[in-house]
Structures are given as structure tokens and as C-alpha cells.
Design brief:
about 475 residues; alpha+beta; 9-stranded mixed sheet; two-stranded antiparallel ribbon; 9 helices; about 20% helix; about 20% strand
Length: about 475
Amino acid sequence: MNNFKFLIGIPVLLFLMIISCKDTKDQKIQLDQKTEAYVEIATDDTSCLSDSSWFHVDPVSGKRKTPAPAEDSTSVFGNNVTVSNCNFHQWSWQKFLWLTNDVSGRPLFMDSLIQVNSHTVPVTTVDKKIVLSSMDNIQATGDILNTNKSFGTNNTSHTVYYSIHVDSTLYKSIHKYAPMEKTAYADASFPVGALELKIAWVAAAAIKDTSSYFVTDAIVEGEAMKIALLGMHVVGIVYNHPEFIWATFEHQDLAPYYDWEATTTSDIPVTSKTNKLLFEAGATATIANITSNNDPKTDSTNVFAVNRYGVPRQAGNTFLETSQKEPKNYNNIDAINTDVHTKLTDIWHNYFYNGSIWINTENYSYPTEQAQLLVSLGTTLRDPSPGKLPRGSVAAYNITMETYEQLGFTPTTIHGQNVGAMGNCFSCHSASRGSSLNISHIFNGAVGNKKGNTIKQTKQKHLDEIKAFIKQMK
């Protein structure tokens, strides 16, 4: 583990009554919100690096065997004062590598985790194959992502699908709390080690050369086919973080990036000289291409990424001022990506870490006070303004999953992006229903399932909540 810089918080007590959405109005939780100013007291000239143990190769099988990262009170996360920005990025990469360890010819996440639907009900499968249905191709905003037809084998645009996977810790915890009355779990949080994955897939036929993609057998809408992995959210609970760490990974070359260097007082159109899975060579794209239509029939196939590593920029390619100090955070992500890619030799070498987001919970005890903090913040949990609590990639996204909400839900410009309208994981995942458990959508789905809701009704309720959130922001 590399040396790290630590930060000392200077608490300033602001007595607030924070009332989140309709469910938390009844609770009227009054909590001292401790906003912190940070002072650097040490200089760290060491890059954020990986550990050699991550790349251990078993001499018998010849396969990489990355150990699982430490996450409990004895780990680096046990001390909220000394834990470093780099530690979160190290956890993210190590967790991803552990999940992709080869186990009996398949990655660990396929062998040992449970594929579930949005109600946290196990998906029926054979030989642990991925199973995808017509209910699995809609993004949170109601949009569908389609590929560039010129990139595939049959001049056809293919739809991107999503699977959900949980470990036994999260699965058992969700089904413990879901049948209870809400008041029984108001201050509860998921246990350390609880883990959820969301993975983006597409038919292998969408890609002429799949040699750089992880490809596996699947059943898609009842049809047996090969699918390729495009992106993955790795969402896990560590000590002092009941909100989860939200890490995200993507294949290395899915779409072009917006040009912040050339940006001055207006948006720069985006194009690409080469064909990419999500962008056709020679096409021109604007903000309209990455704005949600909530209508799959009008979604664009030429999409692009705005903020590399989920770190927001502004005209002239300078960092936007947010709750996370830059460029240290950005440099740490870039450094660990470079370091891992020099050492990783299997198929996962072709995927990169696009950052992670978490909440600064320092000065709140784990787990109850921290859970109450998350509830008290309600839908403001996402707020990345200076002095607020989000840390890491405060504009976190995955180009395959948050394609149409990279700039929030109602963007009018790219060059004018601002913290007030910015989107990140906590825009949709908040504790506004009254418990830190509600940050997990599949927990909410399990609760709805116990009440007799269908999956379609659960998805519609989530869309309605997003629409209400958008209206609130206007």
C-alpha cells in the first residue's frame, strides 16, 4: 500500500432541519450537519498504485488470483481521519479484479454471485449463464441504448442489456428487512461486505472483433447467444460507508470524449475519425445525443462521454470547483489505471476504471449516526457543491448505463455545466424514502414485491420518482 496524504477536518456546526422526500417528512430528523473545510498537512509525492498481490498467478491453474480487499474496522476504512482518497480507488480496482478471478472457467461474479431481477428475486438459469429479458434493456431514465450498426458483423444496431448480481450478504440482508415495516429499519444499514453489481452487455454480433472483450454464453429473450461485457458498476459496503462505494468500469474504447480544451463560450460538436461501438465514424453529435428523451424510439446511437473519470471540467479544460478537491483525485484515478494496465495481462486489461463516488462520513459514528445522516440529506445527498459531502468522482457515470444523464436530467448546455444541475449516482440513489437501505433500488424493489407490485410497476415508480426529482430541481 502506498503512502498517503491525510486531511484534517475543521468542524463548523450548522444546525439544520433537513427534510427529504415524502417518506422522511414524518420522521423530522434533526441532525447537526457538520460541514468541513480541509487543510493539507502533508505532501504526498507518491502516485496511487496497485499492490503486487493483485496480480498473483496460481502456479497450478495459471490463472490470476486477486485477494478480496479488506473492508472491516481493521482495514484502512476503519479510521475516517486517515483513510485517503487513494484508498477508495485501490478498493475499487482490487474489488473488480477479485470479481473477475477465473473460477472453473468463468469469472467469480458469474460463479459465486446471484443474478437477480429488480425485485431481488433470483433469475432462473442453466449452467450459470447470464439470462436477459426485454425488461433488462431500459436505463433508469427510461431510455434504451443502441449500438453503431457499422461496428457489428451484420450491419445491424443492437440493444444494450443489463444484469444485476448480488452476493449472499446483501441478498440475505435485503430479504431480512424487506418484509418489515419501514419504522423497523429506519436507522439500519447493510453490513460490511454487502455487494451489488450492474453489468452492461450486448450481443457479440454487435462487434466485428471481440478479441478485446469478455464474451460469454447467455440466454437473451429466450435465445441462446454470445454476449460481450461493456461496463460494470461495482457497488459495495465498507466500514464507515453505509451509502456504498460506487465504482464503475468500462471497456476502453466505446465512445469519443467531449473536447474541453477547445471549449470557450459555446458547445463543441463531437465527432470521431474511427468507428466505435457507440459512435459512427464521421457522425456529428451535440448535447441532444446525450439528453434523455424517455422514449426508446428516439434515442441516439451516436453518444459520447463528457467528463473523463467522472471529474467535471469547464471551458478551457480546467476543473470545475466542487466538493472534491482536484487534481489530486483525478491524478490518483489516472495513476492507478496506468499502473494496473502495465501489470494486468488477461482479458480484463481492456477495461478501465472510470472513477467512484462516496460520502464523507467523518465525525459521524458508524453505523447509526451515519445512516441518520444519509436520511437527513434526502435528495440533496448528490449535491457536489463546495463544502458538501460527496467525494471522488462527483459527476460519476458509466457511458453504457448513465448515457443520457451525464449532465443531470435537464441540461441546456455542455460548456455551462454546473454543480447545481450535475448528476451522479446519488441523484437516483438516495435515502429519501426514510432509510439508508433505500439507497439500493433492488431493496426498494424487494419491498414493492412484498406489497404485490409487478416489476413493471416497480420500474414505473422509479421513473416517477426521477420525474419528481427533476421537477424539484427546476
